[in-house]
Specification:
Keywords: Lipid biosynthesis, Lipid metabolism, Membrane, Phospholipid biosynthesis, Phospholipid metabolism, Transferase, Transmembrane, Transmembrane helix. Helices cover 73% and strands 3% of the residues. The protein is mainly α. It has a two-stranded antiparallel ribbon. The protein starts with a helix and ends with a helix.
C-alpha cells in the first residue's frame, strides 16, 4: 500500500530526472533528444497530480516536490536548450539572457504556491512554466522550419507572460475528449521525430513513457464517458 502511495512522487522525480538528462543531451549537441525529454517530462507532470488524487495520495511534500521538478525540467533545461542552439553565438550576453527564463519561471511558481487556496481552478494567473518550457522544446524540434528570430521573440514573450497577471484557461477539469487536440499535437510531434530518426537513436525512456501516457489517456477517456453515462 505504501508503494502505491509513492507512485505520484515517483512520477514527479521522473519528471525531474528528465530535466537533468535533457541538460546533459543539450550539452552534448543532441538537441532533439533534449527536447523530447522535456516533452516526456510534460507527460509525467500532467499525470502525477491526477494520479495522486486518484490514489488519494495528495500531500504537501508532493506539491513542493512538483515545483522543484518543474523549475529544472521546464525552466533550466529549456533555457540551456535555447542557449546551445542559438544564444551561444552571443557569448556571455547570450548565456545571461538564457538564464532569465528559469528566474521568471521560478518566481511564477513561487507566486502560485503562496497564492490564495480559493483561487479559481478555471484559469491560471500567467502562463504556467510547464507550458512555457514545452513550447520552447517544440520550437527546438521544429528548428529547421522556425527562424531563430521567432524563437527569440517567443522566448522573450514567455518570460514576461509567466509573471504577468493575464488569466490563462485551465484544462485540469475539462474532460479528455474536449482537449484531445492538445494531446494529439504532443503525440504527433513525438511520432514525427521518431519517424525521422532511427530506432534507438533517441532516449529509450520514450519507448516506455509514450505507451504509459497513451494508456493513461485511454483510462481518462473511458472514465469521462462513464461519468457522462452516470449523469
Amino acid at each position: 500500500m505504501k508503494f502505491i502511495k509513492m507512485i505520484p512522487n515517483m512520477m514527479t522525480l521522473g519528471n525531474l530526472y528528465c530535466g537533468f538528462l535533457s541538460i546533459g543531451y543539450a550539452a552534448h549537441g543532441q538537441y532533439n533528444n533534449a527536447a523530447i525529454l522535456i516533452i516526456i517530462g510534460m507527460m509525467l507532470d500532467s499525470m502525477d497530480g491526477r494520479v495522486a488524487r486518484m490514489l488519494k495520495a495528495d500531500s504537501t511534500l508532493g506539491m513542493e516536490l512538483d515545483s522543484l521538478a518543474d523549475v529544472v525540467t521546464f525552466g533550466v533545461a529549456p533555457s540551456f536548450l535555447v542557449y546551445y542552439t542559438y544564444f551561444y553565438q552571443f557569448g556571455t550576453i547570450g548565456l545571461a539572457v538564457s538564464g532569465l527564463f528559469p528566474l521568471f519561471g521560478a518566481y511564477r511558481l513561487a507566486r502560485f504556491n503562496v497564492g490564495s487556496p480559493k483561487q479559481s481552478k478555471n484559469y491560471f494567473i500567467g502562463v504556467p512554466i510547464t507550458a512555457a518550457g514545452g513550447i520552447l522544446a517544440i520550437l527546438t524540434l521544429l528548428g529547421n522550419w522556425v527562424p531563430n528570430i521567432i524563437t527569440t521573440v517567443v522566448f522573450t514573450a514567455l518570460c514576461f507572460l509567466m509573471v504577468s497577471r493575464i488569466r490563462i484557461p485551465s484544462f485540469k477539469d475539462v474532460p479528455l475528449p474536449k482537449y484531445g487536440t492538445i494531446v494529439t499535437i504532443f503525440l504527433g510531434c513525438l511520432l514525427f521525430v521518431l519517424y525521422k530518426g532511427t530506432y534507438g537513436a533517441y532516449p529509450y525512456l520514450i519507448y516506455i513513457a509514450t505507451p504509459l501516457y497513451i494508456a493513461y489517456l485511454a483510462h481518462r477517456f473511458k472514465k469521462g464517458k462513464s461519468n457522462k453515462s452516470a449523469d
